[in-house]
Amino acid sequence: MTPFVAIARAARKSRATTGGSALFLRCMSNIPENTVYGGPKFQSPNQRVTLATLRQKHRRRNPITVVTAYDYPSAVHLDMAGIDICLVGDSAAMVVHGHDTTLPITLDEMLVHCRAVARGAKTPLLVGDLPFGSYESSSTQAVDTAVRILKEGGMDAIKLEGASPARISAAKAIVEAGIAVMGHVGLTPQAISVLGGFKPQGKNVASAVKVVETALALQEVGCFAVVLECVPAPVAAAATSALRVPTIGIGAGPFCSGQVLVYHDLLGMLQHPHHAKVTPKFCKQYAQVGDVVNKALLEYKKEVIEGSFPGPVHTPYKISPSDVSDFSKELEKLGLGKAASAAAEVAEKINKPEPLGGGSPSSD
Ligand code: KIV
Predict the structure, then answer these.
(1) Do you find a cis peptide bond into 316, omega within 30 degrees of 0?
(2) What pLDDT digit, counting tens, does each position of 199-255 carry?
(3) CA–CA dist 345, 339 (Å, integer)
(4) Ligand 1 centroid vs 128 CA: distance in angstroms?
(5) What reaction is this protein's catalytic activity (predicted)?
(6) Ligand 1: residues whose CB is within 6 Å?
């Protein structure tokens, strides 16, 4: 099958399942809102969140909602909830890969997460984090990485941490390359080496002024929004007031233009019977999904062990009694007498009204 035929088939299938709208190509999420040529338009511009949507929300003082996602199912959930921005954060290193910091995740790993999310989230603006080690050496390296996040990851924009002069130059170069950039100041987890750990920022005058100044510097080179992580509320309020672009707070209080939380944190997905692993104290848990997951797994294990799963309802595939009999005869011919008896025995058992018993039939 040629790629064109495959795409056409996928389009037909998608239209059949989405009631006529060709939403399936959201994976090519970096298609511009207004195409400048007369070619096919795959997406409904009314449905996509773009920088124009965000600007409008910001102008109207409508809070912007941001949540992280790392895979297809989390992206679909964000999409269904109508979250404005889906951030494929390097927090994946911690909440998905189990590392203690965000430092170990690689660009290739981030690209896998980005692609899965791009397949699942049709409407939010997709922002991919530049991982540690992929953009610090030079502006050229930063642009190359940002290009990969859009081209190979299907993202609409990138986020980078920090606002040192080199980082500001990198953000400027990326914007000039035509890629929308979200800045990130305050606690920048990729810099824990120099910050001395996951420490809140802006807690003294010099540090508070630095938060506002660095956010302004990122705005000046064209960032469309700036994340403020773990800073006191008055500092976040000052930055929000000083900036023309939206601020997105995390552990920064309510006086920001929007809020972001990590998917697993807000769902209580790492809930452990005795402790909620790595959930930061600023995070509100809107559910205890971890408890639900633990309970379901324990129940599944118990039912498998006691033989009550799978019962008749979850044993859906049938074979007629005459086929079972012929099948048993074939097995006999093959010298598999015990297997023949097992098939006949089970066929007889399931035709009786009593529930299926535990354990597996005798094997050859
Ligand atoms: O990686 C991430 O999830 C982030 C958010 C916490 C802002 O950078």
Answers:
(1) no
(2) 899 999 999 999 999 999 999 999 999 999 999 999 999 999 999 999 999 999 999
(3) 10
(4) 10
(5) (6R)-5,10-methylene-5,6,7,8-tetrahydrofolate + 3-methyl-2-oxobutanoate + H2O = 2-dehydropantoate + (6S)-5,6,7,8-tetrahydrofolate
(6) 68, 87, 89-91, 129, 184, 227, 229, 250, 260, 262
Distance CA 39, CA 338 (A): 65
Q: Is residue 152 a contact partner of residue 198, using CB atoms and an 8 Å limit?
A: no
Q: How many angstroms separate the alpha carbon of residue 82 from the centre of ligand 1?
A: 19
* Beta-carbon count within 10 A of 59 CB: 9
The CATH code for residues 48-286 is: 3.20.20.60
185 contacts 227 by C-beta, under 8 angstroms: yes
Domain ranges of the chain: 48-286, 318-350
Joined tokens for residue 272? 């452990």
Atom of ligand 1 nearest to the CA of 227: 7
Residues 6+ apart with CB under 8 A from 108: none
- 299 belongs to the catalytic site: no
